[in-house]
Specification:
mainly alpha, rod-shaped
Amino acid sequence: MSKVLIIATMMIPALLIVWVVYIMMRHFLKQNLRQMEFLNKEQELLRLRLEIDRKNQSDKAGLAMRFQAYERLALFLERINPVNLIPRVMAAGRTAGWLQASLLKTIRDEYEHNLSQQLYISDASWLLVKKAKEEVASLVNLVASKVKSDDEAAKFAGEMLTLGFAAKENPIEKALSSLKDEVRKEF
């Protein structure tokens, strides 16, 4: 019995030490797990903040591009307005045929320069812009059918400004109005 008692007296302190170490390790591991969870949550919050910041920056850039598209298309419409277009293209000593070809080329070049802007506006407004361009080109061709191609360019210009869009609604004004309405709604 004395051996059992000696072994028991040796085992009790050893078991106590094992139990204390177990409790300390368990507490340490719980603390470690809490810290890891906290760090993971902090990291996730940081990732979300960065993602939101990146999206906000992207939205700001997209908004600026959209606004610029409206500005460019408004400028395009003003530039193809016959009142503004003719003085820009007109040259002394030229013929009506030359003026017709120059006006059509200028309209086409202006349009092609602004084609990409359709990505940033509504389909309805883009159709009105496109229709305005086609109506101005039709007006140029209508005036060309009324004057001789070897007449002076000034005669062509005068006829075009006189004829204008008086018989129907001005497609340039209609397209500009649509763009302005969209800008008011969007911005």
